[in-house]
Amino acid sequence: MRTMRRAVAMGLIGLLGGTAQAQSWKTTSDLLAVGLPATAAALTLQQQDRDGTGQLAWTLGATVVSTQALKSQLPAERPDHSGNDSYPSGHTAVAFASARFIQKRYGTQVHPALLYGAATLTAIARVKAEQHYAGDTVVGAALGYAWAEYCTDSRSDQQLALWPTPTGVAVLWQRSW
Q1: Fewest CB atoms within 10 Å of the CB: 106, 120, 125, 169?
Q2: Distance (Å, rounded) from C-alpha 86 to C-alpha 74?
Q3: Rounded-to-integer distance, Cα 164 and Cα 150, Å
Q4: Which of 13-22, 68-77, 136-145, 148-157 comes out lowest in average pLDDT?
Q5: Between β-strands 158-165 and 168-175, what pairing exists: parallel, antiparallel or unpaired?
Q6: Over the chain, what is the mean pLDDT?
Q7: Backbone phi, then psi, for 149, in 5-degree steps?
Q8: How many CB atoms lie within 10 A of CB 36?
Q9: Which residues 6+ apart lie within 8 Å of 109 measured at CB?
Q10: Which residues contact 140 (CB under 8 A, 6 or more apart)?
Q11: Cβ(114)–Cβ(61) below 8 Å
C-alpha cells in the first residue's frame, strides 16, 4: 500500500514540477506500472499467501507475454513516432492486472477506487506521454483485467467485478453470507 502511495505521489510531484510535460506523464506511468505489481507482491508476502504469490506470477507473466505477442504481431506506430509497438499498452495491462488481482484476491483490504484509479491514471499518463493512443490503453486494460480474472482465486467474501455488456459495462458486487 505504501509503495502504491509513493508511486502516485512521486508521479504527481513529477507532473507538477517537471519541465517537459510528456516526460512527466511518462515517469508517472512508469512509477504506477511498477508500484501496482509491487503492492500486489507485498500483499501476498504480508498475508503469507503462497498460492497468491503463484497466482500473481501467472497473472503478470501471462499479461506480459500476451501483450508482447500482440505487439510483435500487430505493429502500430506510437504517437511520438518512437517505435512500432504501440498496441496494446503494456504499462496499462500490468496496472490493471495488478489492480484486479489485489481486488479479487484480497477484497476490500485496498479500496477498489484507489486500485482502479491508479490503473486508470496509468492509462491516461500513457496517452498524455504520447506513448499510446487511447485504444491501445483500453485493450491493455482489458487484457490485464482478463488475465487477473482468469488466474486469480478469491480469498474474500466480497467481490466487485466489471463485465462487458452490449451497451457498456456492468458493475457487479457480490458478498457471501
Answers
A1: 169
A2: 9
A3: 15
A4: 13-22
A5: antiparallel
A6: 85
A7: -60, -40
A8: 28
A9: 43, 102, 156
A10: 67, 88, 89, 90, 91, 92, 93, 96, 123, 132
A11: no
Q: Is the dihedral of CA 15, 18, 19, 22 positive or negative?
A: negative
pTM (2 decimals)? 0.80
C-alpha closest to that of 34 among 146, 114, 151, 122: 122
Written as nine digits, the cell of 1 is: 500500500
Q: What is the DSSP track for 60-80?
A: HHHHHHHHHHHHHHS-B--TT
As given in the structure block, the three cell numbers for residue 109 are 483490504
Domain boundaries, the chain: 2-175
Residue at grid coordinates 507475454: 65
